[in-house]
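Q: I have 424 residues here and want to know how they pack in 3D. Can you give me a structure?
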Amino acid sequence: MTRDITPAGSPATGAVDEAFVEVRASFDRFCLAAGIEALGTMMEADVTAACGPRHGRDAARRAHRWGRTRGRIGFHGGKIEVERPRVRGVDGSEVTIPSWETAAQEDWLGRWAMNLMLINVSTRRFGRAVRLPEGDVPASPGSGVSKSAASRRFVALSAARLADFMAADLSALDLLVVQIDGLHLGDDLVLVAAIGVDGEGNKHPLALVEGATENAATVQALLDNLVSRGLDPTVPRLFIADGAKALSKAIRRTFGSAAAIQRCQIHKARNIMERLPKEHHAATRRVLRQAWELDDADKAEKLIRNLARRLDQQWPGVAASILEGLDEILTVVRLKLPKELRRSLACTNIAENMMGTIRRVTRNVKRWRDAGMALRWVAAGMIEANKGFRRLKAHKQLSVLRAALQAHHDRMTIKPVAHVTRAA
């Protein structure tokens, strides 16, 4: 019969007892002490591997112990001092300790800084966000939790992520839809971004460029970047833009005159309403909604032309605006897409959702120093928005879009064959 020989209620002793004392005093300090002890064990194992057992005589050893020193590693968004061993090679040169190098090079501090700034913690409050003012691990001078230190880390990490983002290979993405939209950050600073939807309905931030205005040159630079990174310009796709003529011009120049372009219906309606008095809003909005819900593109175009004809006498400029770009407003209708898919692709809501995240992320920025700063922040916002993306609601109908785009491309590119008559 097996008996339990451990006395009931016997107190913990040794290291366990000390650990419980640390937990009672401060859990934060206990975690720090446990982490330092674990790191010390790893470093001692590395030193033993290089120098052999302590006080041992090993003719094959390649280094020897050389005392101890103090160094800094990351902890809770800042730095702490840790004692570490030193090792010298047989030639007298310093030998690195792998576990220490890993701990020192791990970019915890940069990721802490970037994460907190993306959720709108200002650099002035960074130290308080990562260290409790009354805690047992104080933020002493040189601990790296100051506003300038946090800012430097954010700049370094966001610049690295921007470079990776703008150089990512796009050739493996089966993109069916590309949305392009602009973000105005100042009187002479505009960023134009692209976001794509693949054949499975997944959304991908693609690229970002800066310019003074949302003109054809800026959009062309964006499209050239996409093509240089592997986006095949011969594959039929649907391009969705906010209505700027520069966008359509650059898209057709890069992807051919047969490119299917859908102008955002929400932007179009908003622009029309802003130029009309309130008493015309309800009737105009009703006609536009009715036209966009029709399955017949010819009937939809007739409705919109009748609306422009009624407004032409009193508001000729608005009537001309309604008719401008009419073909591109009804592209998803002409492609005969299902209604649910049309609602998802008739506007730039996907890009607008991403822009909303970017505005939230950049809310604490009071002054844009230059375009480089804007690119870093906005790219970080696009990457942050990507974490919350969901599949397109009508993703099961994207096969219909693929077939419709191919049919549209074939219809627009196949040249008619001239009939040859033989002489009698």
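Q: Anything worth noting?
A: Residues 1-13, 420-424 have pLDDT under 50 and may be disordered. The chain has 18 helices and seven strands.
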